[in-house]
């Protein structure tokens, strides 16, 4: 039985259904295969939570399908039969051992594990070359966000470096000569439902971003996240939180994206505030659901400055990605909240930004406190540092700000960012200053 359900319509997909606690077909014609509970199955109202539905556990896996729920991973062997010649599998050695993939995948499967967290363009290109070499027409990505992004690249990139760079830079379309199925083992990145993949060139992050990057199907089994330790679990959860917050206030937000973002935050905030250090199975199920919802939201809007400035924090200081995003939200949320009409960048006017902030304050239960301070309190509740002090001094601050503000993800930010204020805020995170995060930035803003 599906204990939670969300049905949504948009221009690209006829209907989307997200579930936890059961295996459900999602999107396109497959959505009709979920039998309604009572007469509520077909009554979907735009932007409102739908009546929960009962879903068949044997729902067929077809194009644009996302299967969710404990036990979904058992369908992997079925998917591997989609290509009788070769299956290209992207997974870390640790994932292979933990999930005993050698017992699940056919002997013809080719494994690629030569990548690291926050993968590089060179590693992605190596994966693409290995995939073409074995002739696989089915790519399986199994693991956290990095593994899924490499799998997306392995399907999308040609083997010649300059041609692959053209795809990365958006000058050429990605390849579409193989099917892609993603199996996340963390709850947060949401890569299983997005049309982009993050790759690094040196310390700078670039995105493959095209409808052709999106997976053909995904298996989202929350049981695969049960073994994640607290640091990884909560960093991933904060990644999903940042996705939802940034999508909600994005200048590209739509009614559909806002619905997904609000639903994700409704699940995430109580868990981040009140959960035990190791979340329960039910909480992990909800984190997986929230990751999908937040992923759906950013698939429509993209992220904003909190992500743009998180990438250099990760590449230079090795801060976990989701944690870095949350650190940036501690000052960025307060900046957006306090922005004057003349500082806004949303062409829809001040009302659009004010509506997003009002919604966020309600969801976070701000109660007179700054949003940034509320997010900082969530970091404390999860045992994550509210700063990442560095001995590199102001030079690193300047590097982080320059690289972050050069990112194309800045464009969706609802305020015009003053580089001096951003540098002060990042300095509060990196330099040995007393007081709460964002203190120096607030002093400059109020001057």
TrEMBL record:
Per its UniProt record, what Gene3D superfamilies does this chain match? Answer: 3.40.50.1970, Dehydroquinate synthase-like - alpha domain (1.20.1090.10)
- Biological-process GO terms, alphabetical: antibiotic biosynthetic process
Which keywords accompany this UniProt record? Oxidoreductase
UniProt GO MF annotations:
alcohol dehydrogenase (NAD+) activity; metal ion binding
Q: Domain Alcohol dehydrogenase iron-type/glycerol dehydrogenase GldA spans what residues?
A: 65-222
Fe-containing alcohol dehydrogenase-like C-terminal domain location: 237-338
Q: Which domain of life does this protein belong to? A: Bacteria
Which PANTHER family does the entry mention?
ALCOHOL DEHYDROGENASE (PTHR11496), DEHYDROGENASE, PUTATIVE-RELATED (PTHR11496:SF103)
Protein's name according to its UniProt entry: Iron-containing alcohol dehydrogenase
Organism the protein comes from: Nocardia arthritidis
Its taxonomic placement starts with: Bacteria, Bacillati, Actinomycetota, Actinomycetes, Mycobacteriales
């Amino acid at each position: 039985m599906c204990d939670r359900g969300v049905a949504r319509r948009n221009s690209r997909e006829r209907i989307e259904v997200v579930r936890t606690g059961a295996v459900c077909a999602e999107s396109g014609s497959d959505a009709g295969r979920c039998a309604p509970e009572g007469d509520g199955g077909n009554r979907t109202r735009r932007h409102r939570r739908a009546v929960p539905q009962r879903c068949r556990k044997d729902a067929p896996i077809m194009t644009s399908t996302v299967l969710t729920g404990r036990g979904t991973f058992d369908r992997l062997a079925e998917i591997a039969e989609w290509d009788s010649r070769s299956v290209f599998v992207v997974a870390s050695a640790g994932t292979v051992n933990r999930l005993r993939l050698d017992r699940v995948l056919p002997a013809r499967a080719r494994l690629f594990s030569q990548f690291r967290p926050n993968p590089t363009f060179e590693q992605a290109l190596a994966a693409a070359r290995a995939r073409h070499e074995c002739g696989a027409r089915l790519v399986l990505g199994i693991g956290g966000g990095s593994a899924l992004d490499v799998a997306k690249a392995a399907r999308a990139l040609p083997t010649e470096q300059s041609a692959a760079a053209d795809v990365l830079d958006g000058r050429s379309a990605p390849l579409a000569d193989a099917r892609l199925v993603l199996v996340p083992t963390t709850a947060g990145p949401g890569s299983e439902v997005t049309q982009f993949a993050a790759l690094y060139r040196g310390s700078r992050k670039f995105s493959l971003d095209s409808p052709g990057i999106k997976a053909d199907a995904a298996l989202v089994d929350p049981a695969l996240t049960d073994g994640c330790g607290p640091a990884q679990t909560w960093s991933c959860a904060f990644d999903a939180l940042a996705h939802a917050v940034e999508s909600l206030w994005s200048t590209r937000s739509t009614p559909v994206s806002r619905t997904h973002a609000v639903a994700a935050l409704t699940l995430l905030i109580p868990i981040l505030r009140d959960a035990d250090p190791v979340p329960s199975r039910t909480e992990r199920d909800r984190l997986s659901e929230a990751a999908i919802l937040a992923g759906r939201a950013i698939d429509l809007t993209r992220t904003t400055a909190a992500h743009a400035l998180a990438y250099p924090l990760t590449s230079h200081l090795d801060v976990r990605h989701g944690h870095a995003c949350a650190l940036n939200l501690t000052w960025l949320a307060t900046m957006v909240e306090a922005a004057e009409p003349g500082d806004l960048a949303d062409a829809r006017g001040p009302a659009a930004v004010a509506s997003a902030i009002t919604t966020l304050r309600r969801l976070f239960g701000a109660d007179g406190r700054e949003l940034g301070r509320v997010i900082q309190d969530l970091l404390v509740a999860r045992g994550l540092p509210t700063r990442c002090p560095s001995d590199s001094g102001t030079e690193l601050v300047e590097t982080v700000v320059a690289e972050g503000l050069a990112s194309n993800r800045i464009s969706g930010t609802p305020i015009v960012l003053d580089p001096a204020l951003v540098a002060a805020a990042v300095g509060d995170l990196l330099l040995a200053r007393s007081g709460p995060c964002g203190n120096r930035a607030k002093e400059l803003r109020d001057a």
